[in-house]
Design a protein that fits this description.
Length: 88
């Protein structure tokens, strides 16, 4: 499965959430509302989630293994950096 499109939909300068992203796979399946977050160790992605009855949040969609998560995160953060460069 290939990532065929990454769209940075919203970018913020203030706060820990830096952007909201949509990712398209194989030109046929899209995942919206992936967040780029500034953490203590740098930027990372947070998958779309919803609040459950206990008050916690549960991912709606997410990678099944760490290799896929790393690949997805690298591609998203690369596109985010390009978007920042285009704004400046």
């Amino acid at each position: 499965m290939d990532i065929t499109d990454v769209r940075i939909r919203k970018m913020n300068d203030d706060g820990k959430m830096k952007a909201i992203v949509s990712v398209t796979f194989d030109d046929s399946f899209v995942v919206h509302d992936i967040k780029i977050i500034e953490g203590q160790n740098g930027l990372f992605i947070a998958m779309p989630s919803r609040k459950v009855a206990e008050g916690d949040y549960r991912d709606i969609a997410h990678p099944i293994n760490s290799n896929t998560r790393a690949k997805l995160q690298n591609i998203i953060l690369t596109e985010y950096e390009k978007a920042l460069t285009n704004i400046s």
